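Sequence, structure tokens reproduced for absentees:
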Amino acid sequence: MRTTTRTSCSRGYRLNTFLAFELDYINLGEPSGAVVPGFNVDLAVDGFAPYVVGTIPLGNWFEVYGRLGYYFYDANIGVEDELNGNVEFDEESEDLVYGAGIGANIGERFNVRFEYERYDLEGTG
């Protein structure tokens, strides 16, 4: 399968130094390719995820944080079989997402993050 990149857009509100809320639009791309010869799969997944974010400051510049949320998404799956033709599935589902990372504060309103997130998309199985 060919892999694609994740695209997202976030908006959030930080209540205080330790607690924030975020809403993300997440597009996981459209990977496609041959699973076995003569059997191709196309997948498209996108949706919204509200998060609660807990932060621990490490001095004035750096912070570590954890995120916990729920991903509400649409999955469009297309299967092409040389013998049976095309079959398409549309699935609306929701699943738990979580992550952690480190951030750097640049000024009062700008933050750069490096994070790991985990998606467990049951609707695409």
